[in-house]
Design goal:
5 helices; single chain; globular; alpha/beta; Beta-carbonic Anhydrase, Chain A; binds zinc ion
Length: 178
């Protein structure tokens, strides 16, 4: 099972410590980032990867709900097909990074997007406790890891999967005097 990330580590810290180490990502050892479609996140992710000089060493795939979307069977098939296509194009993907995020609409409506009930039977409330939200994302990501590894075992024998829960990308104004 993948190591659970520390909840206090930011994506920037993770990318610096794990992805940008000199012996890590390269054109021969690429990562595939899988993030949610939510508009608040892609630019943050790309900015960090660019700053760390990781352009050309990763590909980026988008599924609503990221790890949760990976449990929707038809979406999982599309993800696998794209990884197979990347490998054919000599994008040597050896690692997948699931980039879930807090306050995710997909996690509030799992049934509507076709997530099997044994993965998540009830959507998260909008005001869910952060610790409960964390545990839910961890559970969903942990259930996806063996499925993806089994499907890609032949093509990527030593496939590694990490999972991160991105923080909210919004600051909340408590009040504003006009
Ligand atoms: Zn989302």
């Amino acid at each position: 099972m993948a190591d659970a990330p520390e909840s206090t580590k930011s994506f920037r810290a993770y990318a610096t410590e794990v992805l940008a180490r000199t012996d890590k990502l390269s054109p021969q050892n690429m990562a595939l980032l899988v993030s949610c479609m939510d508009y608040r996140y892609p630019h943050r992710i790309v900015d960090v990867m660019d700053e760390l000089g990781l352009s050309g060493k990763y590909d980026h795939f988008v599924l609503a709900g990221a790890a949760l979307g990976g449990h929707v069977q038809s979406w999982q098939d599309v993800l696998i097909t794209h990884i197979e296509a990347a490998l054919l194009l000599e994008h040597h993907i050896k690692k997948l990074v699931l980039l879930d995020h807090r306050d995710c609409g997909a996690y509030r409506h799992p049934n509507e997007i076709g997530v099997p009930s044994h993965i998540l039977d009830k959507g998260l409330d909008k005001d869910i406790l952060p610790s409960v939200e964390f545990a839910c994302h961890l559970s969903v990501a942990e259930k996806l890891v063996p499925v993806l590894k089994a499907r890609l075992k032949r093509l990527i024998p030593d496939f590694k999967i990490d999972a991160i829960l991105l923080t909210r990308d919004e600051d909340d104004v408590l009040f504003e005097e006009k």
